[in-house]
Amino acid sequence: MSGFVQTDTVLDKILARKLEELDELRWTVPLAAVAHAARIAPPALDVLSALNRDTVALIAEVKHASPSRGILIDPFDPVGLARTYADNGAAMISVLTDEQFFKGHLDYLRQIRQAVSIPLLRKEFIVAPYQVYEARGAGADALLLIVAALTDEQLAELYSLTVELGMTALIEVHNEFELERAMKLNSTLIGINNRDLKTFNVDLETTRNLAQLVPDGVILVAESGMLNVLDVHTMGQFGAHAVLIGEGLVRAQNIAQTVKSFSSQERVR
């Protein structure tokens, strides 16, 4: 299974390139080899427990660049950055692995897995089972599935494989319609992205509005647009258990102190 849903946003360009990369990868490393590596990998860590804290849990992102902002941190030391996150209170680390648009790499995930002991999220544009196997084989404990980019059938297949391999899926939604689709999976981890894919505008009220519709027992992650302690605190008051932050960390003057501050905000329980 491959392909993606046309969104008339920047996602379409990224996902089209992702399919080209997958075609190239399958010639280099066959699916059977990637699946074998995934199945013999050490067990995945417990993501839900890591994110269910008294304070807002921080998913700190190892992020080099973005299509809209360009290079965010230079020099870029992914392993050093991850250690700083882990040593200063981050609950989990997100590792961007897209090369062309975000200057990430799957090797960053492999290297970071050897350096830290907290859970890792593979942040990628996932459209095929191959990438799910890749994630587990590289040491990911969780991965991102973007509802806007996938059909219900694709979502169900990728979610099922993720769970089968012992990982946790962070199901990302942008609006009420996507949240309804996500809830059909009975997912225990939902991400609310505050960024509008068509306009790139960020509205933190998106988390407030959608959080009210999320059932009890679901761990809720706020994504995009949080740049300071007040933003993190606000997400906690809106009902988010966790926040996923990249730019607000890598561009901070004191990354270690910022991680500590972001990780100590109270949330509504």
What is this structure, in a nutshell?
With 269 residues, the chain is an alpha/beta fold.
SSE map:
Layout: H1 10-28, H2 31-39, H3 47-51, E1 57-62, E2 65-66, E3 70-71, H4 78-87, E4 92-96, H5 106-115, E5 120-123, H6 129-138, E6 142-146, H7 152-164, E7 168-173, H8 176-183, E8 189-193, H9 205-211, E9 219-223, H10 229-238, E10 242-245, H11 247-250, H12 255-262
Helix pairs in contact: 2-6, 4-5
* Helical proportion, percent range: 40-55%
Number of domains: 1
The counted number of beta strands is 10
Total helices: the number is 12
Sheet/helix structural class: alpha/beta
Main sheet: strand order: 1-4-5-6-7-8-9-10
CATH topology (level 3) name: TIM Barrel
**Shape, principal axes of CA atoms:** globular
**What distance separates the N and C termini?**
40 Å
CATH class value = Alpha Beta
> What would CATH call the homologous superfamily?
Aldolase class I
